[in-house]
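EI: anyone free to look at a 109-residue chain?
SC: sure, send it
EI:
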Amino acid sequence: MNKGELPAYWEAQLKEFECSRKNLTAWCREQGLSIHQAKYWQRKLRRNDPASGQSPQWLTFELGGSGRADIRRQGATLCIKIGPAIIEVEPGYNAELLKDVIRTLGTLC
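SC: here you go
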C-alpha cells in the first residue's frame, strides 16, 4: 500500500472500529493492527473532519417484538447495528431500501 492509499484505508478501518462498540485496544488486537497507528490515524483524520468535534453516542431502540437496534452517528455517516449486522448509512441513501433491510434484520437477529 502506498502513502496515498493510507488515509482511505485507515478511515475505513476506523469506521469499522466505531461501529464495533469495542474499545480501541481490544479491536486492534482482534484485527491484528497496531494500537499506536490506529491512535495516530484517529487524531490525523479527526483534524481533517469538521464534524469531529461531536462525540458520537449510541442510541438503542426496540424494533418490535424482541428486536433491538443500536444507532450511532459519526460525522455524516450513520451506523446501525442490529444483532451481528452493521449498516453504514451515507447521505443520499434509499429510505425504502433501508426500511426493508432493517425490518428483515429485525426478524432474523
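EI: The longest strand covers residues 67-74.
SC: 👍
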